[in-house]
Amino acid sequence: MLRIIQRSLLQVRQCSTTKALSEGEKAIAKKLLERFPNAKHINAEDISGGCGTMYRIQVETPEFSGKLKIQQHKMVTDCLQDDIKNWHGLTIETVNPKP
């Protein structure tokens, strides 16, 4: 019985890594794409377990060139300020692409 449960949990984990984007993730990515049209990479991932209250945001754009990390993060939070009000937490990763 234990083996069946372990296999079942393993299958759930494998399936969850290839899940489609949630509506919240799509909406966040769309806003970021509109704000950073030259971005090389944008990712919004719900890390709250699916309830949409905590996100990991990744943005790589040349618009961050010459800006401090805190300024880059402010650019992202300004874009998402209406959404952030409803969240429990947020992780932001910003990158200025190499030329």
Characteristics:
alpha+beta, GMP Synthetase, Chain A, domain 3, Bola-like protein, 99 residues, 4 helices, 3-stranded mixed beta sheet
State the helical fraction. Answer: 40-55%
Could you say which overall geometry the principal axes of the C-alpha atoms support? globular
Taken in chain order, the helices and strands follow as HHEEHHE
Oligomer: single chain
How many β-strands, per DSSP?
Answer: 3
Which runs of at least 5 residues are low in confidence (pLDDT < 50)?
1-16
Radius of gyration of CA atoms, rounded to a whole number: 17 Å
Could you say how many structural domains there are in total? 1
SSE arrangement:
Layout (H helix, E strand, L loop, with lengths): L1 H15 L6 H13 L5 E6 L7 E7 L8 H11 L1 H4 L4 E7 L4
Parallel strand pairs: 2-3
Antiparallel strand pairs: 1-2
Structure description:
The protein is an alpha+beta fold. It has a single domain, classed as BolA-like (GMP Synthetase, Chain A, domain 3, 2-Layer Sandwich), CATH 3.30.300.90. The protein has helices at 2-16, 23-35, 69-79, 81-84, and strands spanning 41-46, 54-60, 89-95. The protein has a three-stranded mixed sheet, with helices on one face. A hairpin with a 7-residue loop joins β1 (41-46) and β2 (54-60). The longest helix has 15 residues, at 2-16. It is globular, with a radius of gyration of 17 Å. The protein starts with a helix and ends with a strand. This is Bola-like protein. It comes from Panagrolaimus sp. ES5.
